[in-house]
Specification:
0% of the residues lie in helices and 43% in strands. By secondary structure, the chain is an all-beta fold. The strands form three sheets. The protein has a five-stranded antiparallel β-sheet, with no helix packed on it. A three-stranded antiparallel β-sheet has the order 8-3-10, with no helix packed on it. It has a two-stranded antiparallel ribbon with strand order 4-5. β4 and β5 form a beta hairpin.
Length: 152
């Protein structure tokens, strides 16, 4: 008797776990952080469309001061294949402009209907972030956590 088992591949990794805007002055915005992009590598051989979602777990805070999560924006720069570098960016993939983060899941990338299954090495999705500081915001070192989810 010969028994073969095939385990499905459904993985997701992030190249960095910390995004640092450095100093942003009150009343100003800073975009394009990190300069070399946050890279999310996704692999699936299940043949089903998958989604990448993002949300903030809370508003940004510095001691007792808060900055609304909507002041933190994200935008997709591009997506490609580890195998051969072809672009998967199209109308279904990314918002065209910056999108404010929310405290609930927001889909920012959709694979093709086959789950990008032709991409055996994985699909890499590149993101950057922007931050807007209101004129009335107290100075401080603000932080929050972002939650990424890959789901079918």
């Amino acid at each position: 008797m010969i028994v073969q088992c095939a385990w499905a591949v459904f993985t997701f990794t992030i190249n960095d776990h910390f995004i640092d805007f450095g100093q942003v002055n009150i009343g100003e915005s800073k975009f394009g952080v990190p300069a070399d992009n946050l890279r999310l590598t996704c692999r699936s051989d299940r043949g089903q469309q998958w989604l990448l979602q993002i949300k903030g777990n809370d508003d940004l805070s510095s001691g007792s001061f808060t900055l609304p999560i909507k002041n933190l924006q994200y935008f997709g720069t591009y997506a490609n294949s580890i195998d051969d570098g072809f672009s998967l960016l199209d109308e279904r993939s990314f918002p065209k402009d910056t999108t404010s983060l929310q405290l609930s899941d927001r889909t920012f990338y959709r694979s093709d209907r086959s789950g990008d299954s032709v991409v055996t090495g994985g699909t890499v999705v590149y993101l950057q972030f922007g931050l807007t500081i209101p004129d009335t915001q107290p100075a401080g070192t603000y932080g929050t956590n972002l939650i990424f989810t890959m789901t079918e």
